[in-house]
């Protein structure tokens, strides 16, 4: 089971791994906490962003081979201009939810599916989005309740990421609000990562999953992250996005595994 905060998070962080597991015959379940209704998008009159993003999620899930998609139904908490908790948010915002109740709801799905593995986020929620931090808290507790043995924290190896962004900054003018230095403490350092999953064979599905989230490729005053990623040429895409990273906290430092179900030691 893969637990994400909003539609499109699955495409960015875990799509290759999901497609790989589905191809191996595993039942892959995707759960999102919110419909992502506060994301940026250019919508036509009468369109509801939450409904649009859930339709996109189902399209992405179909491409990846998911057997089931669920939304816990919490409100998208949004993000302040400074990158923290937004002052104005819905009454049922995920960040304000009772963590234990949310964990019980997620645990019920884990138990129903008899899930062997749960994927969440690292404690910082990757880049610090409040809903992503809440996914970590809720997911960790849900696994305890359901007795799910394997808990993987989906993340990014920030060491090569920072180097890549610095190099890109020499030829590409990032938006004013984009500060490469914020990534120096985001996601996870190389030494903490336990799983490096090669998903290059599933780059086509991963790219298609990203492309399904059309609403998130537009809106805002600068290039959207998803739109930029989809412009990357195929061979470069497989190289840049061909690895997905996870941290399993119950494994010793220095562990290096290449499949979610690998045991330590091998």
TrEMBL record:
Signal peptide: none annotated. Keywords: Zinc. GO terms for molecular function: hydrolase activity, acting on carbon-nitrogen (but not peptide) bonds, in linear amides. The keyword Zinc applies. GO terms for biological process: glycoside metabolic process. PANTHER family: 1D-MYO-INOSITOL 2-ACETAMIDO-2-DEOXY-ALPHA-D-GLUCOPYRANOSIDE DEACETYLASE, N-ACETYLGLUCOSAMINYL-PHOSPHATIDYLINOSITOL DE-N-ACETYLASE-RELATED. This is GlcNAc-PI de-N-acetylase.
